[in-house]
Amino acid sequence: MSTDTFAMTKIVGTSKTSIEEAIDGALKSASKSIRNLDWFEVVSTRGYIENGEVGYYQVVLELGFKYEDKP
Fold first, then answer.
1. What's the pTM value of the predicted model, to 2 decimals?
2. pLDDT for 13-70, tens place per residue?
3. Which of 43, 9, 16, 11 is nearest to 27 (CA)?
4. Which among 45, 64, 43, 63 is positioned nearest to 54, based on CA atoms?
5. Sheet holding 37-50, edge to edge
6. Which of 6, 9, 64, 65 has its CA 20 to 30 A from that of 23?
7. What phi and psi, each to the nearest 5 degrees, are found at residue 8?
8. ∠16-62-11 over CA atoms, to 5°?
9. Share of the chain residues as helix, strand and coil, in percent rounded to the nearest 5
């Protein structure tokens, strides 16, 4: 019988430009230190206001990744 084990972690990405850029940046950073990334879910979005305008976007992501089987 074959089974797989997965884990989840939560990260936060930010961008002064867009929500999409905040997501992309967070995933690029996470992929440098977490192997076997499989999926992500945007848990929440929010922003910071500077002088009545969007200062930056903040996106909270949950990431799923598979544990490696070691012989």
1. 0.85
2. 999 999 999 999 999 999 999 999 999 999 999 999 999 999 999 999 999 999 887 7
3. 11
4. 45
5. 6-15, 53-66, 37-50
6. 6
7. -130, 150
8. 50
9. 20, 55, 25
- Environment class of 22 (CB within 10 Å of its CB; exposed 0-12, middle 13-18, buried 19+): buried
Q: Which tokens go with 62?
A: 């949950």
What does the domain layout of the chain look like in residue ranges? 12-61
Its CATH architecture, for the domain 12-61, is: 2-Layer Sandwich (3.30)
3-state secondary structure of 60: strand
Q: Which of 13, 69, 68, 58 is closest to 37 using CA atoms? A: 68
